[in-house]
Structures are given as structure tokens and as C-alpha cells.
Amino acid sequence: MTLPSAQTLWSSLSVPAILLDEEDRAIGINPAAEGFLNISSRALMGREIFDRLAIDAPLEEIFARVRADQATLSINDVDVGTGDRAPVVCNIQAAPLADRPEAILLLILPREFAERFGRDQGMKSAARSAIGMAEMLAHEIKNPLAGITGAAQLLSMSISAEDIELTDLIVAESRRIVKLLEQVEQFGNLRPPELRRVNVHDLLDRARRSAQLGFAGHMTILEDYDPSLPPTRCDADQLLQVLSNLLRNAAEAAGAKGGTVRLKTYYDRGLRLRRSDGGGTVLPLQVEITDDGPGIPPDIVGDIFAPFVSGRENGTGLGLALVSKIVAAHGGWISVDSHPGRTTFRLSLPLATDEEETA
Ligand SMILES: Nc1ncnc2c1ncn2[C@@H]1O[C@H](COP(=O)(O)OP(=O)(O)OP(=O)(O)O)[C@@H](O)[C@H]1O
Ligand SMILES: [Mg+2]
């Protein structure tokens, strides 16, 4: 069988797709995109797409990444709207083209569509109700568990040395369950951030020091800071938790042999979160945490910010879900770029304003 022409494929593709040139101008819009965006191909052709679409994600930044790395980036849960049409939650994907590396193929997958494909949304709502259930159970399980631990400790005083191994196991495993339950509770009960004026480098130092005393003792942590970085607006405890979760993941991915984590900060005024109402927030403070570990397993890379998605044997899958929840509550942005040997999580944070007190 001979393959149909590229034009035929393009027209019959049911996913809305837009082809962009080097300058982010539309050079192709398939019929699915015309229908979905309620915009004619003629109205969009040759225009910068930022002028016509309201996409609640830092597209310039995303495209720059795709061009630099020549790798596909996927972003979930993005509001996509046009001037006269209410925004719809979509997953978007930006891919480089093999024979024209500066051009970009932008696929817009409305969430209902993703759902029909049986992915993502289904899993996420299942995860959501699992969280509710787990929270309820967490509360109920902690008390009897404390009883079990106490009983095992009492028992250990009157048994033979070889059986102590067993009571130790009971105690250790019970502690593990308590920790898990606390994580679930913490995820469900995240309080609204108390926003203060905070120096990001102070937080990075605290996160680095406590990581190196504990879970990241086997890691080398390098700093590459822009000392002139102005303060951000955040809840210091919550942001510390974010940094610590990211460092912990890097340390866990590296395994026992260790590895190197690079903490980098810099100012990039170009990063702006476009809101579907047309407004925007500037997120100029960038914090990158890069490790040289094996990279995120490809089968979960699109879902790592959802609860209970884990690629590790004993992982709960709540670390990054909490990270993403906290960053969202701060009006910030987190993105990830992962290949074997190089995984970067990048936090983009707002500037402090005159309103916040210094923490
Ligand atoms: N720096 C990294 N390098 C490689 N894989 C990573 C990295 N960060 C996250 N991952 C992958 O993403 C998964 C999800 O991470 P997340 O922190 O949400 O959960 P977890 O670490 O498995 O469990 P928890 O954090 O709740 O203990 C991890 O299990 C791991 O497979
Ligand atoms: Mg984790």
C-alpha cells in the first residue's frame, strides 16, 4: 500500500494541529484545529499565534526549549481559548520537525478528547477520589497503628534476642506506614501559602544543607547562583518543601553510587504566564535543579505531577504532586526536561512586591 499524501494525512488528523515557522507564525492549520479553535485557516495563517490564541502556558519558553533540545515537550491541563471562545482545558504537545528543526508542530488535545482515548483524565479523577479516601483512612489508621507499635515495643523487652528482629520489623514498617499516611494528609490539607518576601538563595541553602545531612549525603551539590536575584513572593516553608522534594527525587534517582546536582538561579524576564482572560503574570525568577541521573522513565514522564504516579519500587508518587500543588498556589510554574544523564526541574517564580513583609 502506498501512503496517502502528507496533505491527506494532515486533513484527516482528528487532533487539532498547528504548524509554526521559526518566528512562531502559523504556516499550517489542520481542519480539526480550525473547528476546535473556531478560527479559519485564513485568519491564522502567517500570524504569530500568540496574537490569536490565549494559552495559559509560557509558550515562548516552551518553544525555545523544544528548539534548543530538539525534543518534544508535553504540558498538561492548559487553558486554551480564542478571543471569542471560552477556554477549554487541554493537554498540549510541541514537537520539532525532523527536516526543519526551527519549525514546530503544536498539537492541542482537548481534555475530553484525551478522556475518550481512555487516558489521563480518567486516571486523574481516580487519583483524586483515591486521595479523598486515603485522607479519611489515614486519620483512622494512625491511632491503631500507634497501638501496634507500642505493643511491639513492649513485647521486645521480654523476648529472645533473635525474635527482636521481628518486633523491630513491626516497628519499622509501622513507622513507614505512618510516614505515608502523614504525606497523604499533608497533601490533602495544604494550607493557603502565607506570602512573604523571601530570598531564594537562603531557601536553597537550607534545602541543600538539610539534604546533605540526610538523604543526599552521597550526592555532590553544586551552586551556580545569580547573586543579584531579587526576592520572591512565597511561603518559605512550602517552597522549602518543594526544593526538598526535588532534591530527594534527584538523590533517589541517582541510587547508592551518588551523582551531581546543580542548583542554578537566574533572572529571565521573558517568562510570562498567559492567562486565558488575556492578562499575564511575569515569572522572572528561575530556579533549576539538574541532576545527572538516569532520567525519568519515559512511560510516566507525562504524568509525574499527578498523585500516585511513581517509577520507584517504594515510591508513593505524592512528592511531585505536592510540588505542583504548592507551585500552583504561588502562581508559579514548574517544567521538566529529562533525558538519561540530565534531568532538569525548573521553577519559575514571581517577584516580591511592595506588599509583602520580609520573612
Ligand atoms: N530527578 C529525577 N530523575 C529521575 N526520575 C525522577 C526524578 N524525579 C522524579 N522522577 C520520577 O518521577 C516519579 C514521581 O516522583 P514523585 O516525587 O512524585 O514520587 P516518588 O518519588 O515516587 O514518591 P514520593 O515522593 O511520594 O516518596 C518518581 O518515582 C521517579 O520515577
Ligand atoms: Mg519523590
Mean pLDDT: 86
- Classify the beta-strand content into a percent band: 25-35%
Main sheet record: 6 strands, antiparallel
Helix content: 40-55%
CATH topology of the largest domain: Heat Shock Protein 90
Number of domains: 3
The CATH architecture classification of the largest domain is 2-Layer Sandwich
The CATH superfamily of the largest domain bears the name: Histidine kinase-like ATPase, C-terminal domain
The largest beta-sheet arranges its strands as 2-1-6-5-4-3
The distinct bound ligands, ions and cofactors come out as:
adenosine-5'-triphosphate, magnesium ion
Question: What are the secondary-structure elements, in order, as H or E?
Answer: HEEHHHEHEEEHHHEHEEHEEEEHEE
Taking pLDDT < 50 over at least 5 consecutive residues as the criterion, the unreliable ranges are 116-123
Shape: globular
Look at the structure and give the CATH class of the largest domain.
Alpha Beta
Straight-line N-to-C gap:
68 Å
Q: Supply the helix-strand structural class.
A: alpha+beta
